[in-house]
Amino acid sequence: MNKNSTQIIRSVPLTVRSRPATGATRSMGAILIDAGRLSAADAERILQFQRERGARFGDSGMALGLLTDDDIRFALSVQFDYPYLGRDSNLSRELVAAYQPGSRPVEQLRALRSQLMLRWFDSGADRKELAIVSAGPKEGRSYIAANLAIVFSQLCERTLLIDADMRSPRQHQLFNLGKNVGLSDMLAGRAGPEAVVGIAALQDLSVLPAGAIPPNPQELLGRPTFSALLKSLGEEFDIIIIDTPAASECADAHTVAVRAGAALVVARQNTSSLRQMSQFTQGLREFGVTLVGSVLNDA
After folding, report:
1. Where are the alpha helices (DSSP H) in the chain?
2. Model pTM?
3. 144 has a pLDDT exceeding 60
4. 214: alpha, beta or left? (left if phi > 0; alpha if psi -120 to 50)
5. What is the rounded (10 degree) CA torsion for 292, 267, 144, 138?
């Protein structure tokens, strides 16, 4: 990489999508008609039923068999400015924070979000990045990173999810992004800010996929260009969540955690090695990484 590639990352502004107008002033019927979930004629039938029975619009629609519980949750999510995915979405069902916002796992993610805000993100203007790490493979880093990014975006924080696992990336699959350019391409000077993809169905959430799998991920992450990129992205986003590969398989997670300054450690019930995790976290502390907490993943 030449010196100019770092300058490109620093100087090219990233345009973050402006937030759409809130649906608080729109009726449930109008929202469902605009979304193609309800015809104008059926909306009139529901309104007539509502006037006759004195019931709510949603209850009236369900009583007539014209609306489903999913339709009502969708309309409420628009009215209360709370992104929500319906059954017709093509994103992975692993994104439980978007599909099942009222479920117990998502309530636990919100509790984790609150702790992270208190322990890290609200502690200083320069604290925007958080690496999601684990000692071993298949412990749920990508699942936690993706869903944590979603719950932060639902808090109306401009949130970026970066897939820094340039060995076995998963975020492009979870968000159905295809084989787009991504982090590796930006670090190699082959792509610019266009590699960051806004998720249309989840306002305030953007994803920077891993991109093409390079032969030298450790070297790319170790270059000053990665730090420069994080600094540039930090000017556009409030929260940056970074997915990483397993620490037992490569040193990438250590490098990313040092660049981020903080890490959330993920372990899987009945899978993770306590000794391996202890050695890993001790190594992070020696590198000066702030360990903001740990998650026992039983999903």
Report:
1. 3-11, 28-34, 40-53, 57-63, 69-79, 96-99, 104-119, 141-153, 171-174, 183-187, 217-222, 224-234, 252-260, 274-286
2. 0.80
3. yes
4. beta
5. 140
